[in-house]
């Protein structure tokens, strides 16, 4: 039985991707975000795809770059905190990235005995 692939598609070289495990992907992502200031938007896009393909959540790491242009925040970005929201204005595309500000719960345990 013949396959129904066109001749032009058959002539294209077959791309082979090296499969990596989830732990190797996590290490690669952790290493990438340790030096994010020197990365291009294309590299950030590749790491995001890697995380999505292995179902790895970036968590707070996604707040290190712009949602729209995927460039890392630098000295040209401005940060403001108002009404429980953190707003970062990207210096390259002027997009407002906004996140809800989380309060830190310290869970201080008061001792019943003693002075303090």
Characteristic terms for this protein:
3 strands, 116 residues, three-stranded antiparallel sheet, alpha+beta
Walkthrough of the structure:
The protein is an alpha+beta fold. The chain has a domain of 81 residues. The protein contains 3 helices and 3 strands; from the N terminus they run αααβββ. The protein has a 3-stranded antiparallel β-sheet with strand order 1-2-3, with no helix packed on it. It is globular and about 50 Å long. The protein starts with 6 loop residues before the first helix and ends in a 16-residue tail after the last strand. The model has no long low-confidence stretch (mean pLDDT 80).
Helix-strand blueprint:
Layout: H1 7-11, H2 22-34, H3 41-53, E1 78-82, E2 85-89, E3 96-100
Antiparallel strand pairs: 1-2, 2-3
């Amino acid at each position: 039985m013949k396959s129904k692939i066109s001749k032009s598609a058959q002539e294209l070289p077959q791309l082979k991707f090296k499969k990596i495990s989830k732990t190797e992907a996590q290490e690669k992502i952790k290493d990438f975000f340790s030096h994010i200031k020197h990365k291009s938007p294309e590299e950030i896009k590749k790491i995001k795809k890697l995380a999505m393909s292995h179902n790895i959540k970036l968590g707070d790491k996604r707040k290190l770059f712009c949602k729209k242009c995927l460039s890392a925040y630098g000295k040209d970005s401005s940060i403001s905190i108002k009404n429980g929201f953190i707003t970062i204005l990207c210096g390259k595309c002027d997009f407002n990235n906004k996140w809800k500000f989380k309060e830190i719960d310290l869970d201080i345990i008061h001792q019943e005995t003693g002075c303090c």
